[in-house]
Structures are given as structure tokens and as C-alpha cells.
Design a protein that fits this description.
alpha/beta; Rossmann fold; globular
Length: about 290
């Protein structure tokens, strides 16, 4: 639920008592500071499986009114089970995030179905781990088209919708610890570059859209156990690498990321924008 607003009048340079736009983001004195997604409509790209599906589960557990998965793949059994356990609260809309037209159509469908959209997780992405010399131009293009251009199209489309609807919404990107430093366990120069681009977009978009009350942040996961990373802890030198890394020597359950996303999507994060939160058990990609 959007917090009530107490906006003090100030005397601007032109002598008027109009309130500057940035003051409109302040929560009122009666704001409920419980961290919750109650009454919020959240869209998550790539939520039919993996990290996205886990984030949907955590958002539902934190009282989100509705979660929409925007995904190019058809839902599987795990999605169907979560949907059955949360009737009328989890939906799927086919969306190709690399297509601006598809993204705009999906966001319009969310608003048509629920009358609003309050939060957006730009999570869809892919990775490929191999030496830099082995990457073809086509492989690099595929990584950037999905991880960077797709994230950009989603963020700009939903921000325009927030402004159109007068909603002070929240956008959260899924970045990566590889945006900070190389992943020694599974190196990928192009993938790390795409996630570094996502983190930079986070800061710049947060700066540009703060005047609209739109917050933009990112999460940088470390080693997360998904279908794309199943092989990481199967490497014969995994234990040795973990001794080198220190920290928590394991892959995380994707749901362990959820708390950070819920916070950033919630109204309790009303003064949090332009940051990245590493969720990496210290290990991450150090």
C-alpha cells in the first residue's frame, strides 16, 4: 500500500510555497514500518523457474497481492505447484524481454489484470562460463541482448508506467558478484561485463527517476544453486577453492536471496535507491 504523504511547504526561489517534487517521496508519520508487500502487484522476469521462481515464492510469503512471471518459456511443474498453493495470486504472461514491444505488452497486461503495478524485478538472464578466447560473437551478442538490453527495456517500460499511473514504484535488477570481480570457480568475461553494465544502469536510473519517487536498486548474488550452476560444486577442486575463498563454503538456496528483494520492493525501503546489495555469504566470486 502506498504510504500516506505529509509534505511540508517550503519557500522556493520564486517566492511560492509549492513543494518540490523530491519531498513527495516522504512517508507520513502514520506509516506502518513493517516490512511487507501487502497489496502490492509485482512483476518478475524469468520467474517460471530458478531464481525468479524462488523470488516469486518469497514475495508471496511476504503478502504480495499478486505476482506475475514474465517469461519466454512455458511454466513447469514447480510453477504449477506454487500457483495451486496461491490461487489467484500467481500468473504467467509470455514475454520476450529482448523485444520492447513484448515487454510493453506484458506490462500493460499486468495493469489490465490488476489495475496497477508497484514493483518490478528484472531478473531474466543467462550465463555461459568458458575462457574468453572461446567466445564467439554470436554468444557475446546473446548475453548482452538478454542481460543488458532486456534489463534496460524492462526498466524503462515499467518506469514509464509508474509515471503514467502516478505510482512511486520500485525496480530491482538481478546483477551478480561477477560485476565486482572475476569468478575463479566459473570464469566468464562477457557475463561479468553484462552484470557490471546492469549495476551501472542501477545507479544512473536511480538518479534520473528519483524525482518521480521511483527507486532503482540491484542485488548481486554469489554462488546460487540453480539448473545453470549445478556443476559448480561438482568440480574436483571445489573444496580447495572454498578454502581459498573463505566464508560459507556452499551454494545458496535461491530463496535465501528473497529477503533482500522483499526489502527493496517494500515501502520500508522508501529512502533506499541507487545501491547494490551483495548476497553472497562472503564467498561470492572473490
Amino acid at each position: 500500500m502506498t504510504p500516506s504523504i505529509d509534505t511540508p511547504a517550503v519557500n522556493n526561489d520564486n517566492g511560492s510555497n509549492a513543494s518540490p517534487a523530491f519531498l513527495d517521496t516522504q512517508p507520513g508519520s502514520d506509516f506502518n514500518w513493517k516490512i511487507s508487500l501487502k497489496d502490492k502487484v509485482i512483476a518478475i522476469t524469468g520467474a517460471n523457474r530458478g531464481i525468479g521462481l524462488a523470488l516469486a515464492q518469497v514475495c508471496l510469503a511476504n503478502e504480495a497481492a499478486a505476482i506475475f512471471s514474465l517469461d519466454i518459456f512455458e511454466p513447469g511443474e514447480e510453477f504449477a505447484a506454487l500457483q495451486k498453493a496461491n490461487p489467484q495470486r500467481l500468473s504467467y504472461i509470455r514475454c520476450d524481454v529482448t523485444s520492447e514491444e513484448s515487454v510493453n505488452s506484458a506490462i500493460d497486461a499486468v495493469v489490465t489484470a490488476r489495475g496497477a503495478i508497484h514493483g518490478f524485478i528484472a531478473n531474466a538472464g543467462m550465463t555461459k562460463h568458458q575462457p574468453a578466447f572461446d567466445f564467439s560473437r554470436a554468444q557475446i551478442d546473446q548475453l548482452f541482448n538478454l542481460n543488458v538490453f532486456g534489463a534496460f527495456f524492462c526498466a524503462t517500460a515499467v518506469a514509464r508506467k509508474f509515471i503514467e499511473l502516478g505510482i512511486k514504484g520500485s525496480i530491482v535488477f538481478t546483477a551478480s558478484m561477477t560485476s565486482y570481480r572475476p569468478n575463479r570457480a566459473a570464469p566468464s568475461a562477457p557475463y561479468g561485463a553484462t552484470k557490471a553494465a546492469v549495476r551501472n544502469m542501477t545507479h544512473t536510473m536511480a538518479m534520473e527517476w528519483a524525482k518521480h519517487g521511483i527507486r532503482v536498486n540491484s542485488i548481486s548474488p554469489g554462488f546460487i544453486k540453480t539448473a545453470m550452476t549445478y556443476f559448480v560444486d561438482q568440480a574436483p577442486d571445489w573444496d580447495l577453492k572454498m578454502q581459498y575463498y573463505g566464508g560459507m563454503p556452499r551454494l545458496a538456496d535461491p530463496k535465501e536471496l528473497g529477503g533482500a528483494y522483499v526489502y527493496l520492493l517494500s515501502d520500508s525501503a522508501s529512502y533506499t535507491t541507487g545501491i547494490d546489495i551483495p548476497v553472497a555469504g562472503i564467498v561470492g566470486a572473490w
